[in-house]
Amino acid sequence: MSEQTIQIVKATAPVLAEHGETITRHFYQQMFSQNPELLNIFNATNQKTGRQQAALANAVYAYAANIDNLGVLTAAVQRIAHKHASFNILPEQYPIVGKHLLEAVAHVLGDAATDEILNAWKEAYGFLAALFIEVEEGIYRESELAEGGWRGTREFRVVNKVQESELITSF
Ligand code: HEM
Fold first, then answer.
1. What band does 16 get if pLDDT is binned at 50, 70 and 90?
2. Which residues form the Globin domain (predicted)?
């Protein structure tokens, strides 16, 4: 990342904090209308309650505010990457999210979103996306190489079903 990008992203972080949830709400609306296939992987309840919007807004803000000291985000990156891996998020999905996130920033900031600011955010998003992709690939590889492991989804055959209690069933 260039020094100029780091400076611009850090300087615009407070604006994101102020508009973060409006940006992410707009982002999800646009992304789901243009890429409805993604509706299947996101938890609809977390969308309705706003939990997912808040989680993404907080993550983007934390990234922007610490862009000159990314080491402090290591634990958060690991946690989010594991969450992503549990949904089998793939590298090719990052440009889709990036495109809609950038458009949402441009939409909500209006004239304040200059080309310079948008280009800096584009570069910064690409950097973060590459980091997640690398960490997630490590998780997928580890699962694949473990004894009896696999990558992605896999078919299973249910051989038995036991009603353990009113609430719990074992398969
Ligand atoms: C740099 C880009 C991204 C950031 C900063 C980000 C951030 C986050 C955060 C903070 C969470 C919440 C984690 C938690 O609950 O502990 C999350 C969950 C999730 N993310 Fe991402 N994410 C990014 C890219 C993506 C991409 C490309 C996809 C795939 C389309 C994706 C799909 C998901 C899903 C499905 C969840 C779980 C949502 C749920 O509980 O319904 N994310 N992400």
1. confident
2. 1-137
84 Cα: distance to centroid of ligand 1 (angstroms): 6
Annotated domain spans of the chain? 3-170
- Substitution candidate for ligand 1 out of 73, 87, 88, 101 with most atoms within 8 A of CB: 87
Give dist(CA 69, CA 73) in Å, integer.
8
Please write the tens of the pLDDT for every residue from 154-170: 999 999 999 999 999 99
Q: What angle do CA 75, 52, 45 make, to 5 degrees?
A: 130
Report the alpha-carbon distance of residue 56 to residue 50 in Å, rounded: 10
Cα 9 vs. chain centroid, distance in angstroms? 18
Architecture of the domain made up of 3-170: Orthogonal Bundle (1.10)
Q: In the annotation, is 136 catalytic?
A: yes
* Cα dihedral sign, 51-126-74-133: positive
CA distance 59 to 86: 18
Q: CA 61, CA 59: separation in Å to the nearest integer? A: 5
